[in-house]
Amino acid sequence: MTRWTTKLNDHLSLLTAYGSLLGGSAGRLVLSLAYFVSVANGLSVADFGLFATASATGIVLSRIAGFGFVSPLYRTATVRPQLIGVYTTGFLVSLVLSLPVVALAAVGFYRLFFVGEMSAGAFAAVVVAEVLFWRLLEVVVIVNNGLGRFTRGAALVIIGSAVRAVAAVLFAGLSDHSLGAWSLAYLSANAVAMLVAILAFYPRQRLRFRPRLYLARWRDSVSVAGAEIVFYLQSELDKMLVLALGGAETAGIYAILMRLIDLTALPVRSANTMIVQKLMKAPRWLDAWRTRALIEAGVALVSVAGLAFLGGVLAIYPTLLGDNVAQGAPLVLLTLLVPAFRNLVEYESELLYAQGRTGLRALILGLVGLCKAGLLSALFMVATSTATWILSLNGLFLVLWLVSAAATYAALDWNGRGFRRDAALTPVPQPGE
Questions:
Q1: From the centroid of its chain, how far is CA 189?
Q2: For residue 343, how many other CB atoms are within 10 A of its CB?
Q3: Is 328 helix (H, G, I), strand (E, B) or coil?
Q4: Whole-Å CA distances, 432 to 242, 250, 386
Q5: How far, in Å, are 50, 170, 268 from residue 40 at the CA level?
Q6: Closest by alpha carbon to 303, among 265, 259, 255, 274?
Q7: Would you list the DSSP string of 352-408?
Q8: Which of these, 66, 153, 303, 389, could form a disulfide with 383 (CB 3.0-4.6 Å)?
Q9: Cβ partners under 8 Å of residue 428, min gap 6
Q10: For the whole model, what pTM was predicted?
Q11: 8 A C-beta contact, residue 130 and residue 59
């Protein structure tokens, strides 16, 4: 009887934790929708495409910031919370040291994709908002999750999203709807959200500098940073390529569609967080192919159902989310399978993250990114209409999923079944955009 009681309590604890994370996702879903509608209709379609692409660039650059030291910080919060002050200092030092590298990379991205399309000041404001302000909020969420404070982490995500949503609604009511005005509003909103996160949610510990401990973790940090950069680069590369190949107007339509698809990923990312922690505690949980298939089917089903519902509503009420979004409304159902394959690639990446195979994770994500770049470039050369290339995205993301799944599960079973003992050394998936 005791064994069954223990199992029941474990399941209830897992469901409660997931409920907290899902509650944060549900709240964030509503706020993200308000934010998206306000920005997408406040800006022109072309300016929204530029903003979304600049934001995607900032997300990629934010993974350089800190050189991956968020990994040992999370691990410390999970297993040795009394050292959070020590590793927070290490993270802050790493963050400062990484900023010149971030700046150089930002200049490179600007010259490659944005010169002549977007002012340097507006681009810099968006990048700083993502790299410094929102990234630091994410770090606070990650530390709280490491401490098991999922409710606080979920609440912080909602608060941060609410601040950005309020800024977007206020911007929509202004007379100046320029990209420059919005970039400043976006910068300010993210700064406020970061301050709230640090002052109200970060654990209070004295900061102590211990370079010997940091040097012992540098290899883990750099490998995690590399994997994160590759993950977000392959994830956001499509926005940059569409801007370069199709121009700002096409990038705007694509950004609207991808933003709607992103909304389907919020509950999946909450599940990813719990799956990673489950694998840390039960490394052989995913040994059986039946379990693997059931989880993948669940991810796909939830993703498709979410977009089908959203696309169906927009098919009946195309202007429900505003006139600009209405331009992409007829195309939403054409991408019905994209969220399934896209979210599965992200899920499979987190499995390698849980296993501690950050090097293999980076290689697989790099392969997926190269496939995406090649297929998307070819798609633009052969597509005869907007509807054609939008519909073809289903096949493109199917290929990416097949590449990811084949490589990921081969890696999981490499050198025998089961997960490595160092799985607990890797951080929980970070809050998604």
A1: 19
A2: 28
A3: coil
A4: 22, 24, 28
A5: 11, 13, 24
A6: 265
A7: HHHHT-HHHHHHHHHHHHHHHHHHHHHHHHH--SHHHHHHHHHHHHHHHHHHHHHHH
A8: 389
A9: 74, 142, 145, 146, 273, 276, 277
A10: 0.82
A11: yes
pLDDT tens for residues 79-99? 888 989 999 999 999 999 999
pLDDT band at 24 (very low <50, low <70, confident <90, very high): low
- 35's tokens: 């934010």
C-alpha 214/C-alpha 170 separation (Å) is 43
Q: How many CA atoms lie within 13 A of 321 on its CB side?
A: 28
Amino acid at 402: L
CA 155 from chain centre, in angstroms, equals 18
DSSP letter at 337? Answer: T
Contact (Cβ atoms closer than 8 angstroms) between residue 367 and residue 410? no
Question: What DSSP string runs through 31-69?
Answer: HHHHHHHHHHHHS-HHHHHHHHHHHHHHHHHHTTGGGGT
Q: Are 376 and 344 in contact (CB under 8 A)?
A: no
Shortest CA distance to 132 belongs to which of 165, 91, 166, 162? 91
Per the listing, tokens 């991956």 go with: 68
Long-range pairs, 314-322, Cβ under 8 A, ≥24 = 321/33, 321/36, 321/37, 321/40, 321/41, 322/37, 322/40, 322/41
CA 347 to chain centre: 11
284, 419 Cβ separation under 8 angstroms: yes
Joined together, the tokens standing for residue 250 give 């096409």
Half-sphere exposure for 257 (CA within 13 Å, toward CB): 29
CB 41 within 8 A of CB 174: no
Most confident range, picked from 134-138, 249-253, 263-267: 134-138
DSSP secondary-structure letter at 429?
P
The pLDDT of residue 126 = 97
| 391 within 8 A of 379, measured Cβ to Cβ | no
Cβ-Cβ contacts under 8 Å for 375 (sequence gap 6 or more): 396, 399, 400
Q: Count Cβ atoms within 10 A of the Cβ of residue 374 and give its class: 0-12 exposed, 13-18 middle, 19 or more buried.
A: exposed
- Residue 160's H or E segment, with its range, is helix 150-172
